[in-house]
Amino acid sequence: MNILIVKLSSLGDVVHAMPAVQDIRAALPQARIDWVVERGFAPLAARCQGVHRVVPCELRRWRKAPFAPATRAAWQAFRADLQSQAYDAVIDLQGLSKSALVAWLAPLAPGGRRYALANQTEGSSYERPTRWVADVAVAVPPHIHAVQRSRVLCAQALGYAVPAALHFGLAAQGDGDSDGVGAGRCVALVHGTSRDDKLWPEDHWLALGRRLIAQGCTLGLPHGSDAEQARSERMARALGPQAQVWPRLDLGALADRLATCAGVVGVDSGLSHIAVALDLPHVQIYNFDTAWRTGPVDALRQRSVFARPAPGVDAVWQAWQQVSAA
């Protein structure tokens, strides 16, 4: 059975779709699973166990210059890649017009069907074309965690019960280039996020970092933008030699590097969701009460901490003490 997963972006959403792939593997071990995803997230999807082929696209970039010759050539190459395989099931886990377009372009095998969400869920975007393209629209509870939403949709589409166990199947590769100080004792501080209102105050990070260093940890400071790099460098100067600014890495290499850490403390961001998928001790910091929808579900090894306007250092430290001791 050939199955195509359509989950294009964003980083956290891609990570949240991984358990659905593991459920399919368990229920249909002979199935071949392909995944269409934005190119920037392709190295991560390729590390999801059970994914046979990743079909990268660049819809975000192409729509900026839709009539440019380079865009037309890239679009034709993408279509040829996508249409090189016919599918028994095409499952749109995104629920947007762009994912509906990709699902519509994917060829079906005889008897094949397209599946999509029948309704919007709380806190998530949804566009009606996803239903128009689908042969079967699957209704899911409106109040549901993002991970569970994808699991329920795949289970109903393919005819199995959602397993009790939750696995992401994100496999790190190599040693993660863990040549920094204190390899194995390093705690990554994921301070960057795409929204400023999700940031944690910089002085809070410094106070937390000093507590971790006093406990014998070293600190890793990843970054994905110039602003985040500047913040990492400021924090490293303030915290001293036990804090190391990581090089800017693609998502696959960054996941490999995170996998070598003793744990992660981070804001609500894609990298924090990668930490969850890697099953690392993790504290996820929320300035908004949305952890029920996107936060970690393993309360033993991973905790979310919420307060307005932001959680205090003591609350985050207490959560870290709990997860690191589990």
Q: Assign the CATH architecture of the largest domain.
A: 3-Layer(aba) Sandwich
Q: Which fold name fills CATH's third level, the topology of the largest domain?
A: Rossmann fold
Which class of secondary structure composition applies to the elements? alpha/beta
Largest sheet entry: 6 strands, parallel
Contiguous helical run count: 13
Strand content: 15-25%
* Global mean pLDDT: 95
Separation of the first and last Cα atoms: 40 Å
* Major beta sheet, strand line-up: 3-2-1-4-5-6
Number of domains: 2
What would CATH call the homologous superfamily of the largest domain? Glycogen Phosphorylase B
Radius of gyration: 20 Å
Helix content class = 25-40%
Give the overall shape.
globular
CATH class of the largest domain: Alpha Beta
Low-confidence segments:
179-183
Task: Please trace the helix and strand order, writing H or E for each element.
Answer: EHEHEHHEHEHEHEHEHEHEHEHEH
The strand count comes to: 12
